[in-house]
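Need the bound structure for zinc ion, inputs here:
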Amino acid sequence: MTKSAQTNLDDAYRQILEALGEMGYPIADDNFRDTARRAARALTELVLPVPEIDRAVDDLVAKSFTAKYDEMVISKHNVSFGVCPHHLLPVIYRISLAYLPSEKVLGISKLSRLARLLSKRPVLQEQLTQDLAEVLYSRLASRGSAIYIEGLHLCMAARGTEAHEARVVTSAVRGVFRDQQVTRQEFLDLVTAAPLSLI
Ligand SMILES: [Zn+2]
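Answer from helper R.:
Posting the output first, comments after.
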């Protein structure tokens, strides 16, 4: 995060508070004392700088290892957070990722990390879905990749009365997942099955 970006965010939230004051809220109260700074910091936890994300993805891909494993690798129901580009309101994602390795294999925890990283951008869910599929296909030189995302968009859920439960579902497939209906279906069956109950 550059100093200028940080300063702009702090200033912007101070202006938002001023507007709230004009709307009649007691912004001089203790509860609001550090709010501009806190809110700016909170946003930077939901939106990471592009160079930081690029570096982290490079690192992650570089940590792939060679293995004689060519079955589907799948990481299901990873929960991550971001903001939508239209309202800058939070989105809660549940992301499932799969790929069919060729030579390079990623540790399973790296798949969750990749999902979390690319979520922290103000991009459309469709774009996030495509970008994840692309990393697992092109950067890993895999035989195919598949992504399935359910997004709970607060811009939809918190406004209006009809959309409280609205989930946006997107998916993207590359390589074998695109070419072979059976493989694609196997993935979809796995990720849309009811989650295991622990109680
Ligand atoms: Zn939105």
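Comments: The longest strand covers residues 73-83. The two ends are 42 Å apart (CA to CA).
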